[in-house]
Write a structure and sequence with these properties.
binds S-adenosyl-L-homocysteine; TIM Barrel; DNA polymerase, domain 1; alpha/beta; binds iron/sulfur cluster; globular
């Protein structure tokens, strides 16, 4: 019997393990088959099950009845439109085409034999940070959980031959993760499931521009991921000039939310600060940042500005970045100046922008 459905088919990768089990039970199958299917989806060598030879007959029957054109489910398989490596070979950027034709970017960075994938959570972004290419392109749509999970699968499969596998995930690609809260949390539950991709919460960092309700929800729900908050300015006026959503969630409110988060979870918070020459890189601004972070367990990541088409600013020179860092250090606040990576292929922080018109960086193929 074939299960024809009038509803829009769902991606199997959108489902958590518990949801997949429920699907089997609802269709009169043993939930035990869910585990074999889950392994094939999240752990298999191909990421699909075009060759389900080792499936038991009932599972093969479930697949025949439920997966495919006109059925309840489909298999998420973004098409790789481009795979570009930086000249130093340490950064790779994948342009992925989703089922509806939207394109997103996923970046894989190698660090001493281990790899970190930088995932997108939206096509475009609604937050409009002036120095960010994704913000410059505007919002297109939220990604579904399966579209986030598929990026991890894609990175893992691409790294199969590489030395050292995929270790860490940062949600610092296209989009604002806390603007797409439910889908991101479902994706992270799927990704961290021990029976599948098994990338634990301590290896996952969520980066937010400062969506206050999302930060408070992470705290209330005791979500075990690392949190990074993008600040870029230590006064309301300076921050709003770079990050327009500061008008919606003002700096004072954001810092209050960070304090609540810290009180409720005891977790250290990472703060990101894009260093822009002459805009937010003076020693006095470093002093104001240090004052803002007093009483929190904080680590500051200083990111020299990466170039984007829509913003004329330039990166802070190394000597000034070090002077900025020195002020923080004197105030007892640890920080790291991020290495610039993948700039030659526009795979650096804030450079992701999946359109066809831009020149340089990646070139769309196929
Ligand atoms: N939306 C989230 C996560 C994606 S952006 C956020 O804003 O935190 C990831 C990081 O890249 C953020 O800290 C962001 O401020 C930074 N970034 C954006 N554009 C940049 C640029 N041109 N150069 C350097 N860092 C940039
Ligand atoms: Fe969106 Fe983050 Fe870029 Fe701001 S920096 S526009 S929040 S992706």
């Amino acid at each position: 019997m074939t299960t024809a459905v009038a509803t829009t088919p769902r991606s199997l990768l959108d489902l958590t393990f518990a949801e997949l089990e429920r699907e089997f039970v609802a269709a009169g199958f043993s939930p035990l088959h869910a585990r074999a299917l889950w392994r094939a989806l999240h752990h298999g060598l191909r990421g699909d099950f075009s060759d389900p030879a080792d499936f038991l007959p009932p599972l093969r029957r479930w697949v025949t009845e439920h997966v495919g054109v006109g059925r309840r489910f489909f298999i998420e398989a973004p098409i790789e439109s481009a795979d570009i490596a930086s000249a130093d070979g340490l950064t790779r950027k994948f342009l992925l085409r989703l089922a509806d034709g939207q394109t997103i970017e996923t970046v894989v960075m190698g660090f001493k034999g281990r790899h970190t994938a930088c995932l997108s959570t939206q096509a475009g972004c609604a937050m409009g940070c002036v120095f960010c290419a994704t913000g410059q392109m505007g919002f297109v749509r939220h990604l579904r959980p399966g579209e986030i999970v598929a990026q991890v699968r894609h990175a893992q499969l691409a790294l199969r031959a590489a030395e050292g596998g995929l270790r860490n995930l940062v949600l610092m690609g296209m989009g604002e993760p806390l603007h797409n809260y439910d889908a991101v949390m479902a994706a992270l539950e799927i990704i961290s499931d021990r029976r599948g991709l098994n990338i634990g919460p301590s290896r996952i960092t969520i980066s937010t521009v400062g969506v206050v309700p999302g930060i408070l929800r992470l705290a209330a729900e005791q979500r075990p991921f690392h949190l990074a908050v993008s600040l870029h300015g230590a006064t309301e006026e300076e921050r709003s000039a770079l990050v327009p959503v500061s008008q919606r969630w003002p700096l004072a409110e954001l810092m209050a939310a960070c304090r609540t988060y810290f009180t409720q979870t005891g977790r250290r918070i990472f703060f990101e600060w894009t260093l822009i020459a002459g805009a937010n890189d003076s020693p006095s601004q470093a002093g104001r940042l240090a004052a803002l972070l007093t009483g929190l367990a904080a680590h500051v990541n200083l990111i020299p500005l990466n170039p984007t088409g829509g913003f004329a600013g330039t990166a802070t020179p190394t000597a000034s970045a070090k002077a900025f860092q020195q002020v923080l250090q004197t105030a007892g606040i640890p920080s790291t100046i991020r290495q610039r990576r993948g700039i030659d292929v526009a795979a650096g922080c804030g450079q992701l922008r999946a359109d066809k018109t831009r020149t340089g960086g990646w070139a769309e193929m196929r």
